[in-house]
Design a protein that fits this description.
- There is one protein chain.
- By secondary structure, this protein is of the alpha/beta class.
- It has a single domain, classed as Rossmann fold.
- It is built from seven helices and seven strands.
- Helix 5 crosses helix 7.
- The longest helix has 18 residues.
Amino acid sequence: MTSDHHQPDPQQTALARARYDRQAPVYDFMNFCSEFVYRRWREWLWRQVPDQGHILEVGVGTGRNIPYHPRRAQVIGIDLSPKMLAQAQMLNQKLGSHTELVLGDAQALELPDASIDAACATFVFCSVPDPVLGFRELRRVVRPSGRVYLLEHVRSANKFIGWWLDFINPLVVATMGFNINRHTLENIEEAGLEIERAQDVGLGGIFKIIVARSRR
């Protein structure tokens, strides 16, 4: 149960699941080139995550972050797509990882309040149907002393680039399933999280590493 009266839109959630189920068999191949850059950012992000306690990865996908999961922690990885999760499970077994992989929705986490020490997501909230609802769920399940660690692409502050992202976003959503023009920093704050750090890592501020916590 979420802590907000607003509930996920079943139609939009089903659409997102279907998109990623379709992409699952070829997802890693489709993103092969970009991953040469992204994997450095993923590793950088995960080095900041606590190496013990209960850690949640939202949108585990095909398991690209599993190699960076802290070995001393109890890590739960959730994903909306059963077929993406199946790919992650194969990698999980190959690496001998103890990450627990669970089918779940970032917008309605089946976890108790304040039960997680830290949460992490990479390139996920661009495709969550209601990102504010998803961030509210992270605020709910992460302990007050914990942090939320994110690697996301956001709408550019540059007027021309921002306009161009807005223009092509419908095509990207239709073909790939994710949004390239979301105001992610604003969505995080609207959800009641406080941004401690937002660090540009590439392409003039489009890609950011973000650390947030519950407002005190």
